[in-house]
Amino acid sequence: MSSPEIASLSWGHMKVKGCSSTYKDCKVWPGGSRAWDWRETGTDHYPGVQPADLDEVLKKGIDLLVIGRGMSEALQVPSSTLDFVKQKGVDVKVFQTEKAVAEYNKLAGQGAKVGGVFHSTC
Fold first, then answer.
1. Which CATH number characterizes residue 20's domain?
2. What is the mean pLDDT of residues 21-49?
3. N or C: which terminus of the chain has fewer CB atoms within 10 Å of its end residue's CB?
4. Is the residue at 68 inside a domain?
5. Phi/psi class of residue 108: alpha, beta or left (left: φ > 0; alpha: ψ in -120 to 50)?
6. Which InterPro entries match (predicted)?
7. Residue 108 sits in which domain range?
8. How many domains does the chain fold into?
9. pLDDT at 1 over 90
10. Radius of gyration (Cα) for the chain, nearest Å?
Protein backbone atom coordinates (compact mmCIF):
# COMPACT_ATOMS: atom_id res chain seq x y z
CA MET A 1 0.00 0.00 0.00
CA SER A 2 1.20 3.48 -0.78
CA SER A 3 0.91 6.61 1.32
CA PRO A 4 -1.93 8.82 0.05
CA GLU A 5 -1.07 12.24 -1.34
CA ILE A 6 -2.28 15.36 0.45
CA ALA A 7 -4.37 16.85 -2.38
CA SER A 8 -4.90 20.31 -0.89
CA LEU A 9 -4.06 22.42 2.14
CA SER A 10 -5.46 25.75 3.28
CA TRP A 11 -6.08 27.31 6.69
CA GLY A 12 -8.26 24.83 8.58
CA HIS A 13 -8.81 22.48 5.61
CA MET A 14 -6.93 19.47 4.31
CA LYS A 15 -7.97 17.02 1.60
CA VAL A 16 -6.36 13.62 1.14
CA LYS A 17 -6.42 12.06 -2.32
CA GLY A 18 -8.96 9.24 -2.50
CA CYS A 19 -10.84 10.40 0.60
CA SER A 20 -14.14 12.27 0.52
CA SER A 21 -13.64 13.88 3.96
CA THR A 22 -12.11 17.28 4.61
CA TYR A 23 -9.90 17.42 7.68
CA LYS A 24 -8.85 20.29 9.94
CA ASP A 25 -5.93 18.27 11.28
CA CYS A 26 -5.12 14.85 9.93
CA LYS A 27 -3.10 11.67 10.25
CA VAL A 28 -2.00 9.80 7.13
CA TRP A 29 -0.23 6.48 6.60
CA PRO A 30 0.22 3.90 3.84
CA GLY A 31 -3.30 2.98 2.80
CA GLY A 32 -5.27 5.42 4.94
CA SER A 33 -6.02 8.66 6.71
CA ARG A 34 -8.29 10.08 9.38
CA ALA A 35 -8.96 13.22 11.37
CA TRP A 36 -6.44 14.04 14.08
CA ASP A 37 -8.69 14.91 17.01
CA TRP A 38 -6.60 16.46 19.76
CA ARG A 39 -9.36 15.79 22.30
CA GLU A 40 -8.55 12.05 22.13
CA THR A 41 -5.25 12.62 23.91
CA GLY A 42 -5.68 16.05 25.52
CA THR A 43 -3.14 17.59 23.16
CA ASP A 44 -2.73 21.36 22.99
CA HIS A 45 -0.25 23.72 21.32
CA TYR A 46 1.88 23.51 24.44
CA PRO A 47 3.37 21.16 25.51
CA GLY A 48 2.42 19.87 22.06
CA VAL A 49 2.45 16.58 20.18
CA GLN A 50 2.43 13.58 22.50
CA PRO A 51 3.50 9.99 21.83
CA ALA A 52 -0.17 8.98 22.07
CA ASP A 53 -0.91 11.23 19.06
CA LEU A 54 1.60 9.31 16.96
CA ASP A 55 1.26 5.73 18.14
CA GLU A 56 -1.51 4.82 15.67
CA VAL A 57 0.52 6.03 12.66
CA LEU A 58 3.73 4.42 13.92
CA LYS A 59 1.96 1.03 14.05
CA LYS A 60 1.20 1.23 10.30
CA GLY A 61 4.67 0.04 9.24
CA ILE A 62 6.16 3.39 8.29
CA ASP A 63 9.87 4.17 7.97
CA LEU A 64 9.51 7.95 8.27
CA LEU A 65 7.09 10.29 10.04
CA VAL A 66 6.52 13.91 9.00
CA ILE A 67 5.00 16.29 11.56
CA GLY A 68 3.39 19.58 10.52
CA ARG A 69 3.45 22.13 13.38
CA GLY A 70 0.85 24.49 11.89
CA MET A 71 0.92 27.44 9.53
CA SER A 72 2.60 29.64 12.18
CA GLU A 73 4.36 26.72 13.92
CA ALA A 74 2.36 27.20 17.13
CA LEU A 75 2.19 23.44 17.81
CA GLN A 76 5.18 22.33 19.86
CA VAL A 77 6.98 19.01 19.43
CA PRO A 78 8.83 18.07 22.64
CA SER A 79 12.17 16.30 22.39
CA SER A 80 10.66 13.44 24.44
CA THR A 81 8.12 12.87 21.63
CA LEU A 82 10.88 12.82 19.01
CA ASP A 83 12.82 10.35 21.15
CA PHE A 84 9.72 8.13 21.36
CA VAL A 85 9.47 8.03 17.54
CA LYS A 86 13.17 7.25 17.11
CA GLN A 87 12.95 4.46 19.72
CA LYS A 88 10.35 2.84 17.46
CA GLY A 89 12.96 2.75 14.66
CA VAL A 90 11.24 5.48 12.65
CA ASP A 91 12.94 8.60 11.32
CA VAL A 92 11.09 11.86 11.98
CA LYS A 93 11.03 15.28 10.30
CA VAL A 94 9.29 18.36 11.73
CA PHE A 95 8.30 21.38 9.61
CA GLN A 96 5.87 24.25 9.28
CA THR A 97 2.76 22.55 7.82
CA GLU A 98 3.03 23.77 4.21
CA LYS A 99 6.65 22.58 4.10
CA ALA A 100 5.68 19.36 5.91
CA VAL A 101 2.99 18.57 3.33
CA ALA A 102 5.41 19.26 0.46
CA GLU A 103 8.01 16.94 2.01
CA TYR A 104 5.42 14.26 2.77
CA ASN A 105 4.01 14.38 -0.79
CA LYS A 106 7.51 14.20 -2.27
CA LEU A 107 8.33 11.12 -0.20
CA ALA A 108 4.95 9.48 -0.85
CA GLY A 109 5.41 10.10 -4.58
CA GLN A 110 8.76 8.29 -4.39
CA GLY A 111 7.03 5.27 -2.85
CA ALA A 112 8.41 5.76 0.66
CA LYS A 113 6.57 4.18 3.59
CA VAL A 114 5.82 7.57 5.09
CA GLY A 115 3.23 8.70 7.60
CA GLY A 116 2.28 12.15 8.77
CA VAL A 117 0.39 14.20 11.30
CA PHE A 118 -0.54 17.70 10.23
CA HIS A 119 -2.02 20.72 12.03
CA SER A 120 -3.63 23.05 9.47
CA THR A 121 -4.22 26.22 11.47
CA CYS A 122 -1.93 28.26 13.73
1. 3.40.1230.10
2. 96
3. N
4. yes
5. alpha
6. AAMDC, MTH938-like_sf, NDUFAF3/AAMDC
7. 4-116
8. 1
9. no
10. 13
